[in-house]
Structures are given as structure tokens and as C-alpha cells.
Amino acid sequence: MSDQMKSSILRMYSDIGIETPALERLASEGVQFEHAITPHPLCVPARTSVMTGRYPHSTGCRRNETLMPENEQHAFRIWKENGFTTGLIGKNHCYIEPS
């Protein structure tokens, strides 16, 4: 999942884009949006919105320095509670899971 990516860099959206076989397969088997807008121009608020389904003003996460509230319900926590195993490659910067 990418929180901020310009569609014109991908071949599936543009003749001059790069080939991304894994993303193309994922799009063919799932949902592919033709028009989407990020709820916030900064990384952490945008990621928090993707994870919670809520706007930055409702989570209180409006800056990159603000973590998601510890008790916030988000997709990865819900999946874990229901027996799914998830992984993260890249940046989290949204929350610190209690150990």
C-alpha cells in the first residue's frame, strides 16, 4: 500500500510509466482507483487516515510529529485481533504498538 504516489509513474495508468508487475496483479485482483485524493499533504496524517478511515482532524494527527493516539482503532490492529499476520516495509511513524 502506498499512501502518496503519483499515478503517472505507473504503466497501468500511463504509457510512459514504469512496469510494476506485482502492483498490476494486485490491481487486477482487487480495487483500482482512477481518481483518488490524499486527505493530507503530509505523510503521517495521510497514513493515519488510510489506517483508520478517518480524517486527520478527527484523529488529532495533523503533523508528521504527532503520533496516532494509542487507543485509536486501525486496520492493522483489527486484522491482528482477528488472527491475521501483517508486515511493514518502509516507514511507520504513525504509532508505537505497546509491547
From TrEMBL:
Keyword Hydrolase: yes
Entry keyword annotation includes Hydrolase: yes
Span of domain Sulfatase N-terminal: 1-94
GO MF annotation: an example: arylsulfatase activity
InterPro entries named in the record: Alkaline_phosphatase_core_sf, Sulfatase, Sulfatase_N
UniProt keywords, alphabetically: Hydrolase
SUPFAM superfamilies found in the cross-reference section: Alkaline phosphatase-like
Similarity remark: Belongs to the sulfatase family.
Protein's recorded name: Sulfatase N-terminal domain-containing protein
Native source organism of the sequence: marine metagenome
